[in-house]
Each structure stands twice: as C-alpha cells, then as structure tokens.
Amino acid sequence: MIRVLALIFAFCVATGLAAQETVRPEVRVELSESETIPGQAVDLRVTILVPTWMTQPVVFPSFELINMIVRLPDRATTPVTEQVGGVAWSGVSRRYQVSPMVPGRFVFPEQEALVTWADPETNQPREDRVTISSVELLGKVPAGAEGLDPFLAATGLTLTQTIEGAEAPLLPGDSVTRKLVAKVEGTSPVFLPPLLKPEQIEGVSIYPSEPVLEEKVQRGEISGSRTESVTYLAQSGGGGQADAVSIQWFNLDTGKIETAVVDAVPLAVDAPFASDRSRLSPQILVLLGGGALVLIAVLLLLRRVICRRVVEWQAVRRARYMASSRFGRDKALAACKGRDLAGVMAGLDLITARAVTIDATSQARVRNALTALGAATYGDGAGDQNAAWGALEQAIRGLKIDMPAKTRADGLAPLNPVQHDNKSFS
What we know:
- By secondary structure, the protein is of the alpha+beta class.
- The chain folds into three domains: 116 residues, Immunoglobulin-like (Sandwich); 114 residues; 129 residues, no CATH class.
- It contains six helices and 22 strands.
- The strands form seven sheets. Strands 1, 3, 4, 5 and 6 form a five-stranded antiparallel beta sheet that branches.
- Strand 8 and strand 9 form a beta hairpin.
- The longest helix has 41 residues.
- The N and C termini lie far apart (143 Å).
C-alpha cells in the first residue's frame, strides 16, 4: 500500500513539473478591421501574457510592409492583466496604426517577439521567443471613387494660393512668387499629389522650391499640409499664365467626390520678344546634325588616305635625316658615349662626305681631340682616357657644318656632286 501511494505521489510531482516546463507566454494578435480605405488607419494589436511578471520590456517586431504606413501612436504599449485558465496573467499590449497606401491585399507574415519573464519555479529571468501569427488586411477603394488617380480619401481638404511680387504685365527683371498650400484632415499629407507641374512660359524663367510636408497627430486624428512654391522671373517679351491647380478627393463624411481648385496666374511680360537668332529651329538642328554626320563619314573615308600620307611623310623625313651630315654627327656622338673609336671615325666620315663645308677651326679641334685620345690610349704616358673622350665629344658637338640645301630622300649622292676642299678628320 505504501509503495502504491509513493508511486502516485511521484507521478503527480512529475506531472506538475512537466506542466510547469511547458508553460510559455500567451500571444494574441488582432486587427480592428479586416479591410479599410487606402490612407485610413486600422489598429493592429499584439498582446503578450505570462503567468508571473516580465523582467524586461518585450522586443516587438516592426511590421513594416511595402506600400504600408505603420505608426506607433502615443502610449502605444500598455500593461494588461487577463484570466488564462482561471488564473490572472500579466503582460503588455502594443497597438500599431497601419494604413495601406494603395488598394490591394496586404499580409503581415509570422514574426517573432522576444519575451523576458520570471520563471514560475525559480523566479529567475527567462527568455522565450514567441511567434506572432500572420494577419491579413485588405485596402479597398469605395464604390464611385474608382476613377480617382491618385486616390485620396479624407474628412476635409482645402487648397489656398498666395501671390507675392509684381503684377502683370511684368517688366524684365520683375519676379512673382506663387505659393500653394493644401491642408488635409483625416489622413496623412503624404497622400497629397504634387500641386505644381513643370511649366514653360515664353519670356519667363521658372524656379520651383522643394515641397514641404507637415504632419500632425492629435488624439489619434491625423492631419497635415503640403506646401509648394515657385518663383517666376520675367526676362523678355512673352505671354502666358501659370495653370490653375485642382485636386479631386473622396469625402469620407459625405461619401462623395469633391474638388479643390485655385485660379490660374497671368504672367504676361511687357518687353520686346527675344531675338530668334539665338534660338535654333528644329529644321536647323536637323541640318546641323546631318552635316555633322556627313563630315564624320567623309573623315572615315579619307582616314586611309590621310594615314598613308602621314606614313609617307614620316618616311621621307627619316630618309632625309639618314642621308644628312647631322646623322653622321649623331652617330659619332653616340659612339663617343660608347667609347667606340671605330664608330666615331665612321660618323666623322659621313660628315665629311655629306657636308658642303666644315669650319676649319672646329675641324682642327676634332683632329686635336683625336690625337689626344690616341696618346692617352696608346702612348707611353697612359693619360686620362675619360677626359680625352669627353674632350672629343665636346669637339664634335662644336663642329660648324654647312648642310646642302636639300638632301635627296633616297639617301643617294647628288648627281652633280660639288668639289670640296680637304675635309678629312684623319
């Protein structure tokens, strides 16, 4: 009997422990409405409960979606107490305001929240990741408003215009600033469309400013404004106007489509019209473009001829250089740097053969430098060869040579060579 009672007690204890081990936070998610009009918010509420208490704030997901505005209103997270299985559980509830920006079906997928709470057995902090189940919201345009593009639903909308600056007709240098303010109630100003479209007015330069959006949330009601301005600067004679502006919107209170309108702004300029000479007509632009294409085609056709002429010209210049006495001097100087006496003599021979006349004094310096080099190389005294080579190089650089009037491109000697005096360097 005692053994039976012990087994029953052990079973009860094990069952209680197992029940405690399976205790996890309770999670509830709900939408206040399953469908809404684009721009109108519904509440997405997530409630998390535990049987003890939470030791750290819950880490909630953001619920961000494409084309969905998600906001946390004031006092979005509040403590709650509810009965779970006849026992009071405590926790928190967070309220999100979600607004679809366009019509369509939106699904908030399953997400996780991190809950830190006191373990029922030990009262020690314990972390659990809990799953927030998926919910679906439908954004639907009300009947009769399907033609609005873009769709805008609100409880109120006003459009005002102020004009600052000179009055028409304008004079060159006068400016006019147009300011439009659209105020909306019952939705965010992000749903307001652009007010001022790009314009072109003859004789007037246009300078738009960046739009300014202001949003307000008061007691859960959303409102705001969109402000746009543009400055018109008169430059020359012209006529025209800044267009009227209108916004169509769906009134949530009346269920009807309404229109807010502001008038156009006249912008005539009292001045001579700008000369058309500075403006190229489309016909002239076409002619210029065609001429440019023809020129490119001609250049492409002549490319081979031009390249061939350039190559021929370079070849002629090379042949003339190779047949000149300047080539002989360059050859002799290069041989000096390489300490090549035979090469020096070959270069000097080319100078002798190709120059008309050689200055006797400069020629004598070269001969003396050659003699000094020979003495330094082969003499008994074994002089400074580096100095001798340097002196020879300077002497060759100082040669005064009269070139022939024209050297044949083929490098051959003239048909009627001129008789010269002795120009040999040896």
